[in-house]
Design a protein that fits this description.
The protein is mostly helical. 65% of the residues lie in helices and 0% in strands. The longest helix is centred in the first third of the chain and has 17 residues. It starts with a helix and ends with a helix.
Amino acid sequence: MDFVCDFLLHPYDSSTFCDQFIRRWKDEGDRGELQPDDNKTSEALSSIFCLADLFNPDNNREQYELDEQGLLREIKKLLLKEP
C-alpha cells in the first residue's frame, strides 16, 4: 500500500505506476504474498488493480477507461472511502 500512497503524494507517470503495480500484484500473487493482508487492505489493492487495468493513456480510450486524472481521482476516492 505504501507504493500507492507514494504515487498519490508524488504523482509521476501513470503508465509507469500501472505497469509496476500490476507487475508487483502478479509477482506477489505468484509468491503467495497477497494472503497476509487484512480484508480492507486486500479489497483496496484488488480494486486498485482493476483501476490500473482500466487506465489508458491514449486519447482514443473507451468511455469506461480512465485517463491519468480519472485514475488518480478514483484511487483517492477508493482510499478515502469510509470503512
